[in-house]
Amino acid sequence: MEKVELIFVPTPGVGHLVTTGEFAKRLLHFDDRISVTILSMKWFPGITDAYTESLAACQPDRIQVIQLPQVDPPSFHLFKLSPEAFFYELILSYFAPLRNAVRDIMSMRSTSDSGSTRIAGLVLDVFCAPMVDVATELGLPSYIYLTTNTAFFGLMLYLSTRHCQNSSVIEYPKPEAGNMDLEHLIPGFVNPVPSRVLPSFVFNKDGGYAAFVKIAEKLRYAKGIMINTFEELEHYGVNCFYNGQNPPIYPVGPVINLNSLPHPELDQVQRDRIMKWLDSQPESSVVYLCFGSIASHGPPQVKEIALGLEQSGHRFLWSLHMPPPSQDDAAGTKNPEAILPEGFLERIQERGLICGWAPQVEVLSHKAVGGFVSHCGWNSILESLWCGVPIVTWPMHAEQQLNAYLMKELGLAVVMKLDFRGGTGEVVTADEIKEGVLQVMDGGSEVRKKVKEMAGMARKAVTNGGSSFNSTRRFIEDMIGNIPDI
Ligand SMILES: O=c1ccn([C@@H]2O[C@H](COP(=O)(O)OP(=O)(O)O[C@H]3O[C@H](CO)[C@@H](O)[C@H](O)[C@H]3O)[C@@H](O)[C@H]2O)c(=O)[nH]1
């Protein structure tokens, strides 16, 4: 049996790395001939290490993790102007280490005693799409594993087409204040998309727009795009791109890590505290709040959330992540209790629980949880759909407002907030939060019904014969057919 190896290059944030690792594992499960190498970049120390280690340990004969040497990052000033431009530059500086690592792997596999393994190509995170140039240089095909949805793929193609038509444009035209409802015909969306839900990098003149357009242009050179979505969810969007005009797309999701992530804040004592508390709550009575692996709120917003929850009268589990301490931090901001409204904990007593990092998938799977106030990171959306828990939208950064808009268009979310108000720092008020919670917990029966139906479809999609199962098979066949004779 001839063996084939795929070389994955994930972006090392939790929201990207974990689903990519799970997809790599899924491929091994599908086909005994496949093995994978994960080339790991270390951008954020700590949090992703435990996952990478577990990946390397789970099937050591078929998954290997190689740490790429660290590079000097671009200046922090660039990060402040535009995180997207910063990461774009960072990826470019990884070209040389990547080239060396892939060359080493290729030469080792061709001389191995245990029979030759053919290198089938690179599987790149979307941020790493510029690395298709390295693959081409080495004569290898590249594929993209898109950790978000088809709608975002549509936006990228739209930006790159628009840019090809007029490459002198260095930013997207920002509508005048008050005209954020200007609409755009983005492929993959049934209805025109208002400006206010486009990701903010689209309007960033300091390199954010330029970086994304350059990334988007590279997608066209990929041999295929695997998307963490499923046909039943994005039926219209997926069918728009089965058109032979872009690289083939493969909706392979949901690709979710059903085991809770190891995290320094989540030892067995903390996990037991959370799960035992949930065990003692009535069915569908708890609203869960969590804003992903990156986002956090400042003290004024934390106070408003607390007041909103209190006023809603509902039970809640709140995963409260504190912002990283800065030098001029006021004493106490590391301690959530110090910034909660006075007397809050005494007043809510057993009605609510505040935790740090949560075992999110376990929480969403618990029968006590009836709603989820979320920042609309794509993994959180898929996890909530998988568990049949309706989401209340509160996008905070990146492409989350587009995700929230998509969920609204599909009738799968209770809308609390659709945009992040251009990052103005304006707080969401206790009243708005209370309304969102009341809507999902007391009303929203139509949304709840649709979400439950979608949960069934999500599970069916990934089982034998389901749409994503078949799509994954199709990817494997195409990928093997594309292997170059090197
Ligand atoms: O207390 C927590 C917080 C998060 N998670 C997990 O961490 C992941 C978070 O992923 P996601 O919901 O996608 O949020 P981000 O971490 O913000 O993800 C980044 O990556 C996503 C995928 O590309 C994008 O959709 C987001 O906008 C981007 O911020 C999920 O699997 C959660 O289950 C926990 O287990 N416990």
Topology of this protein?
Layout: E1 3-9, H1 14-30, E2 34-40, H2 49-58, E3 63-67, H3 76-81, H4 83-93, H5 95-111, E4 117-125, H6 132-137, E5 142-146, H7 150-165, E6 183-184, E7 193-194, H8 208-219, E8 224-227, H9 235-240, E9 249-251, H10 268-279, E10 286-290, H11 299-312, E11 315-319, H12 336-339, H13 344-348, E12 352-355, H14 360-365, E13 369-374, H15 378-387, E14 391-393, H16 400-409, E15 413-415, H17 430-442, H18 445-462, H19 467-481
Parallel strand pairs: 1-2, 1-4, 2-3, 4-5, 5-8, 8-9, 10-11, 10-13, 11-12, 13-14, 14-15
Antiparallel strand pairs: 6-7
Helix pairs in contact: 4-8, 7-8, 11-17, 15-18
Uridine-5'-diphosphate-glucose binds near residues 293 and 360.
How does this structure look, described?
The protein has 486 residues and is α/β, with parallel strands linked by helices. Helices cover 43% and strands 14% of the residues. It contains 19 helices and 15 strands. The strands form three sheets. A seven-stranded parallel β-sheet has the order 3-2-1-4-5-8-9, with helices on both faces. A six-stranded parallel β-sheet has the order 12-11-10-13-14-15, with helices on both faces. A hairpin with an 8-residue loop joins strand 6 and strand 7. Helix 4 packs across helix 8 and helix 7 crosses helix 8. The longest helix is centred in the last third of the chain and has 18 residues. 46% of the residues are buried. The mean pLDDT is 90. The protein binds uridine-5'-diphosphate-glucose (UPG). The site of uridine-5'-diphosphate-glucose has 25 residues, from helix 1, helix 14 and helix 15.
